[in-house]
Amino acid sequence: MEQGTVQIKGYHVEAKTGETAGSATYRAYREADGARVAMKLLHADYTRLADITRFKHAYGIIKRIDSERVVKVLDVEEHGDGLVLITEYFPGTALSAETLRKLDVRAFLDAAISMAEALADIHRRGLIHGDVRPPNILLGAGGQAKLTGFGVDSDVTREKEEIYSTRVLSEVLPYTSPEQTGRMNRSVDYRTDMYSLGIVFYELLAGRKPFEATDPLELMHAHMAVRPVPPAEIDPEVPDALSAITMKLLSKNAEDRYHSASGLMADLEECRRQWQRNGRIESFSPGQYDRRDLFEIHQKLYGREGDIRKLIESFEDVLQGKRAIVLVSGYSGIGKSSLVQEILKPLAREKGYYISGKYDQHNRDTPYSAIVQAFDSLVRQLLSESEERITNWRGAILDALGSNAQVICDVLPCLKHMLGEQPPVPALGPVEAQNRFNLYFQKFVAVFARHAHPLAVFIDDLQWVDSASLGLIKTILASEGMESLFFCGAYRDNEVTPTHPFMVALEELQRGGLAVVNIVLEPLRLVHLLELLRDSLQITAGDSLADAILKKTGGNPFFVKQFMRHLHETKVLVFDPAAGWRWDLPQIARLEYTDNVLSLMAETIRRLPQATQEVLRLAATIGNMFDLDVLNTVSERTPEETYGSLDRALGEGLIVRADGRYRFAHDKIQEAAYSLIPAGDRPAFHYRIARLLLGKLDPGAGRNLFDIVNHLNSAGDLIHTAQERMQSARLNLEAARRAEESAAFTAALNYLEHGIAMLPEGAWTSDYELAFVYHTKKGLMESLCGRHDDALATLGGCFDHAKGRLHKTEVRRLKTNVEILKNDLPAALEEGLAALRAFDIHLPPYPDDSMLAAEFERTIAIIGDRPIASLVDLPALNDPEIAALQDLLQEMFSPTYQLGTNNFGITVMRILQNTIEHGISRNSIYAYVNFGTILCARLDIEKGHEFGRAAIRLNEIHPDKKSESMLCNMWGAWVQHWKDTYENSKASLRRAIHSGLETGQYIWAFYSTCNACMNSLLRGAHLREVLEEAKLYLPLCKLDKFNAITWMVGAVARYAEEFGAQADGEPTHAAWVDVDAVTEEARRINNQASLYFLNFFDVFAGVFQGAYEEVAELWGSTDPGRLGMLAAWHASPCYYYYGGLAFSRAAGTAAPALREAYLARLEECARKVELWARFGPASFRHRSLILQAELARVEGREDAGALYDQGIAAAREGRFLHDAALASELCARYYLDLGREFLACAYMTEAHRAYARWGAVRITDRLERDFPRLLQREATHRRAPRPAELDFAAVLKASQAVSGELVLDRLIETLLTIAVENAGAERGLLIHPRGAECDIEAEVVTVRDRVEVSLRRALITPADLPPAILHYVMRTRETVILDDAAAPNLFSDDPYVRERQPRSVLCLALVKQGTLVGVLYLENNLTPRVFTADRIAMLELLASQSAISLENARLYTQLQQENIERKRAELALREREARIRCLVDSNIIGIAFWDTDGRVTYANDTYLRFLGYSRQDVASGNLYWTKCTPPEFHATDERALEEMRLTGEFRPYEKEYVRKDGSRIPVLLGSARFGESANEGVAFCLDLTERKQAEERQKLLLNELNHRVKNTLAIVQAIAAQTLRTTDSPRAFAEAFGARLLALSQTHNLLNEASWQSASLRDIVCAELALYAEGDAGRFSLAGQDVRLRPEAAVTLGMVFHELSTNAAKYGALSVPSGRVEVAWHVNTSAAEPRIHLEWHEMHGPPTRAPSRKGFGSRLIERDLKRQFAGAVSLEFLPEGVRCVIDLPMDRVAV
Q: What does pLDDT average to over the chain?
């Protein structure tokens, strides 16, 4: 607001004197007396009612300050969008960069004493200034200072909150006290002003601030922990006394500063006296004149030194990467919160964030209350940062959350202020929604818990935690991906038993590897109380008082402090000026209400004014934390009155401000206030609050709903009318829904139980729908809370009341779901089958194969000859009962699949049949891909693949995130693998895992994880890689509560570990999975799937262990061919492959009858694998060849050896290490049986090496044991020492260090450090091969016993290492060791070896699955033979792990980069989509999305308006752009589509659409391909109707102009010809012709004015007569109505009146002054044909007579009017003048 715009009644603004982001200042004068005043306009946010009210209340007190040192406040007024503060005008100058120069001592003392005096006057009123800094200090004449600008101003403007703004960083934070930062465990009192004043003093004395920083957190940390250099050390001229005074003011602890401004004044006055007297100031101890009578309890924590140390050590451990939490326990008031806040100082040092939340015993049904409270404060902290930082936070959060940001925004609405509106997330079931929420909240937390800015989270009163919060906390703490999350919880140990859910969860977390640091707080002892009394009362002997306090309080710190305050308030503890503090011990013993802290606090509250007591009771009823506007609503008073009552409690410390809200300073205070409400009156309090909040708040906004409903539910029987009970029921239902959406199932169940109690007795009759929703939801919530039997009982009762098939099916489906959650699969199957009977589907639990075959034939018949690809184009399903049936059929997946019943196939086929008959639904994706599975199991691979592709295409057309994980899993592990590679199938499975986690579909994430691990095993990945992958999935496996699915991950890991263990080493597979327990459970419920999977592992392991007979015996117990869809599983072909090998080998030792059976099985297996090899040669060709070799062997054919060779070569080509090794072993056995030992030795050696490359150490040991003669050389050749010879602990530690690191740079550093330290090298290089080139990734050197690693990433040069050695190792993959490079060797001629002469050299290849991923080069230039056998053995053991880890780290780094780029692309895509959506919704042009089949899939309102269709037409699929196109445009459309197919777009062209009503609309049409799809586009359409109409008008105008010009020329030609005939000279011709043309032009002018549409008859007559008026209007008389003439009639009549007037002027009435002319006309409508009758009558002119010959005029009138308009004309030459009568038909002349 500029000068002149500020209008405050009674004041006149003169000028603006200053402005900041939050305020503006003006100079003005008061109109009443002309007094000068200053005005400060504060830009206030009126939504912050509490701040506005507090501001007004504070200034109400400030106005009463009457001090010469404080600018007088005159008034506070509201103005526009802000508040205006009117103060006295003080013509001083604010301290600034110019005035804040060093002052001399005298000037400093004068100003300093004025400032201290000002603070003394402010503090005397019980106020805190809160913003002492140079701009608020005005220096007047004589160096006198005045204070202005209280800190409460910034509460309104919020200026101080933006700590990263340049102004706050330079002008505010430098003057902030440690406790004001909010990062110290200290409350803010008047002593904060002392610290800020000390900063000002320091600046005045030293010429600079004590702390400077560019980061606000650094500056805050300096205030808290850095001691400034004393001013006297900066400038020796500063007196030591003034330096000491300043340093005392700058004490970090408020207790060490001055206790009063008057004490400061006394010291300054003494300094001034000395200076005035002596010109110097002697040193003295500052504070000697300070007040001692102030009762202030020291805020130090007593007796907690060890606990604080433990807390900070735990924080340091977390910073170092340790997974640990701290739990602080103890009684209420023991000081748990105070202890935890000691973390603030070290956290500030690390630039971390501290957030806290607290559970409320009275609001335990509000889900996530403490977590929301904590993270809400975090978001608000972030919103106060700079725009640049907010942008960075926004990007980081969106990168982490992706398209699921709305999940977090639903719980933290304030996050939208940072992220903006987010796209909605797909609706999921409650379990999936809970999983999704937990996952993405975990990701959200991880954004902030970083090394650069640790996050400390403190959650208090965990004894009252709700179950949803507990689940979320478990998820967060179980995550191993948090870099720097310091979680600290507190609970009352006397209220928590070992069975409390929190303690149970804690035990589970500890079992998962989370370290828990327990800090149990004990009561204070006598020694601690003595220390407290000495510090607070400045006494030396207080043993008796300490003992009395200890007896009364039991050493509870909160009770101690409250009791001491009580002693002071009741005058039992008093200050004696002469003797100090005194107390009355007998009186202490007699004090009432001090038996416990609750009684004491109740008594404290009773001593407050009645209004304050009332407001505290209401606040306690609301909760531990409350908003002022809510309190104001329930107190039914004005905000000012409410705050006035609350202010007393604030002053007493009973209530504190926190993040713009208010809370009780301690639970006991809230309990005491609540206890003052008689128990019988409490329901009435809650009822009153609920009704008032209902009238004031929007239940749909934020968490208002929970507040309202919680109060209603506490109102008891006061809700008794039917209307109120129904309202309560509906509100409880909505609260339950909201709680369920937030995955707070226990809270949702509580709301449902309350709501059901509110329903009328006959609700099933009177309010059926409401009762149905209540009971179904209640049953589901009971199940999700683990109360499965209660859920079944609830749903059973609901089923009895359910009406109609739709509702009964829904209940049955829910019961099926409950049985699945209960892990009772047979019961789930039974319930599902019972539900199907309602649809006349009668199935037994285990249908035989004939039923399955019949269902298959029926399905094939229904499909008929439809192309499978066309099934994606079916219409949408719109039958709710069929939809319910399909939901039920899909719900039966788990029991039918796990139990191995044919019902799986039948249920899938029923959904497929329904889809074809009734239309597509989301269940169709499930049906298509699983029917593809069934077809593949029946060996119809091609058609199965087509159905799988159809499912993928359907999900692309109708995306369903909920189905995506299921689809990718079933596709990758059951369909895709038949024709595609294992690598591509693995990619699908990874997508399935990601999607399952993203959407909370954990069950499909579990299946996909198992299949991903199995994929690695099947493709022969290195066993170490398989093991590492299984470890990677362990956190996910822990989420499988019953281990019903993910046990397979453990099984894969178990065999990988078992094969990789040394023969004399014990594998630790027991830790992975208890196979016996899995087997027992599978047999108990007849889980055929699990039994088959278990059998597969036994077959797989048995073949590689050489146990062929055992495998052959057990193989047939679970033939997948008899297990329906299980035959399609990606391991099933391998089951036949390994089974065939076992049959082949076992047949050699079997009895004759059994041998025949085994050989028949072998032939069957070989035939099937050969068939599959035709479809998927990449995966099955080598297996088919190996089986064919075995067949040839047993048949005695000579081609067996060649077939083995082909199989081995194919396995190597496909990198199937395990199968190549196995085939080599079988071939060796074959040649050994033939007695060809030389060949057998060669193949067995190759098998041994291949097994070693696979990582199967135990299998190589078996070969050495079984074939010692063949492998004697291999076993002894450079054999590594056994584990007993190695430092096993060192190997294990090194392996763990390498395998546990995913960040590439840190991995390289770890690897090289381990290599150098363990090998004894001086220098080392890590080489990264890149095709033909090589890079040095890093170099390591030892310097003075210290290992230094530098990341180089440079090309190799001959100066770095011996190129010959490197090339040899890269080509052969062999290890090169030069024990003494100075001695002659293979590489002696290498220039590097020759010139550098290294003593010891080791070069080792790092190989993963046959691929070289790195080379490790080590050298020692001091000592030969450094690289001993044990060191080399250790490095070789590490080489495999290092190769895997390097590849994983590089992949991880690449994935991180790709992930960042993908998320950036997703963000750009979302922004692009938002812009597109904005364009579409703006409706500026018509926009439609279409496909090449002609269907319009979406259109905006403008496009629909163009075509006359509705949105329902689009939704129903009835709008086709092809059908709206007239036939003449079809060819043009085809050309445009062809152009789009080639270029991605087509140029705009004009066409027409046929609207729904049959009319046509011209449009300009352009289009482009939508995304990457070749079959979809987006069209942009402009309506050309107006343009076409304009063009038509233009065409008509041109035609009209052409016609008009021709007519005009004809008229002119006729006029010229007629004029020539009637004139006798050129001059006469020119005059007559010119006059006639002028008349013609006048008529044209009139027509032009009306766009040649018409002209007024009156205007035409007037125009022709105007020339003859001669200023006498009375010469003419015109009478007639307004008639509009056509253009041709106007031209002709214009000429007629021209001729009549010209003739009158020459010969008639107008030739004499007395002559007059009357013109009259009227329209005769009575005749059959309306006609216009015109008369021209001349009077008072000379006598007239008829001319001797007819001239131009006569002919025009008599001939042309008749001929042109079929008119009647009479022209008479009467004695009194000419009379002309014209009669014309109206339809010929008039418009």
A: 84
